[in-house]
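Homework help thread (please don't just give me the answer)

Our assignment gives two proteins as sequence + structure token strings and asks us to describe the second one. The first is just a warm-up. Here they are:
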Amino acid sequence: MAFLVIGLNHKTAPVEVRECFSLTREVVRDALLHLDNYEVLTEAVILSTCNRCELYAVADDVEEGLGEMKEFLFDLTGADETTEEYLFSYAQEDAATHLFRVAASLDSLVIGEGQILSQVKAAYTLAKEVGATSTELNLLFHHAIALGKRVRTETKIAFQSVSVSYAAVELAKTKLGELTGKCALLFGAGKMARLTAEHLKSHSIEKIFVANRSFDTATALANEIGGEAINLKDALAVAKNADIIVTSTGAPHYIIRPWETRKLMAKRRNRPLFIIDIAVPRDVDPEVAEIQGVTLYNIDALESVVDDHIKDRENEAAVAEKMVAEEVDYIVKRLRYLTFRPLMAELAARAETIREREVRRALSKFSDMSESDLKRLNQMTRMIVRKLLRLPMMELNASAGTVRQDFYINAMRSLFRLENIGENTVERDNYRYANE
């Protein structure tokens, strides 16, 4: 069995490609329910966020598994094969390292950000709920989530982090100068919008308007931040007085289009308008950037702001990387053991079947054996079996993941006839120990 990951993220694909792979919870759930349509894949988890779409899976074979995962991903997203150049893939230890780095927020656009850990947990929980995970992914994701929590509590990486919303406001400040006395319009009222509003207020911005599909939700956020809620349909009318627009909705289509924006800029007499689109899929049609007086940035533009803070987090990130390496080393050993567990279980079952048969034969000749003597006999024979199997089991387990692995698998199956496991089969085999 092989642990694999395939996908794309902010490092491998621009936002216009990433938005093609943006998936809702309902789409992910439906896809995982149809995992059986893919013969090689036995387990799967899909992680879809604004900066990544990644498919984690367990497959019977690395090469066939990656091919089928690519097919699964294209079926799921509807993306065409021209996007294949943006995909990355990892197998086995490298795949585990990637998952652990993602959960530890070391692979994020903003190193140390806290949202990714909850997103990893939610992705795993959904997959588990629909029965798409089993032993290997359960083990891997339990450890990845636990590691993510450790990194946040045992290092200061979270205290040195820069959120996407913070970076957006810093970008606005860099381009516009001081924000004191400025007016901002937020599209969206979720967590990202709330954080953006808090950062804007910290820079003494004068007025914040909140537009959202749900007016009640917009009102709730506006009341929290001392802003003003507006209906989504009225947003661009209010934008006549805005200096900054920040969008972070979950809309599947553009909410700011060229035609409406041209009309807006005519009303503003082309007074400059600064727009930051931190949504994926994007909220603002890219053609808006061509309109005179409009400056448009998307989420990828925030990397320059984030890079300015990298040195503040490098030491803590180095500590976290060591924690990841230690956890990967442990999990690789655990997975090697899991690879051999079925074979070891068969070997133990074969030995136990023989032990029980021989005890029954012995009992037929000792009709007056007491309950306590029978208990001693069973205990003694179990210890004999356990001690006889101990060294072969240790050798088998030690060979997992090495060049000796296939040799020991074949040898064990041949020597102990493990392909014919079962009590009735054992009794027909006339199986005997070598020294009998």
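The one we have to describe:
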Amino acid sequence: MDGWVTGIAVYVVIWWLVLFVTLPFGVRRPEDHELEPGQERGAPVKPMMWRKIAACTLISAVLWVIFYFIGESGLISFRPE
């Protein structure tokens, strides 16, 4: 990779993509008897966001390391020759 700014930018992009992939896991909608007045029917009961953010961070770190080694090894070139 070109430098640390590029590395951080790639990590942030990977992190957001992984976050959107992990958001639906473990989501359970409330039953009719669990709804409170004014609560949206599609809102999850327990979104477990801290668990998803932690998983997202770990998965993104692994994917970033793989991406880094592929780029540094020359297996796939990201620069025009």
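TA reply:
I won't write it for you, but here's a hint about the kind of observation we're looking for: The chain has two helices and no strands.
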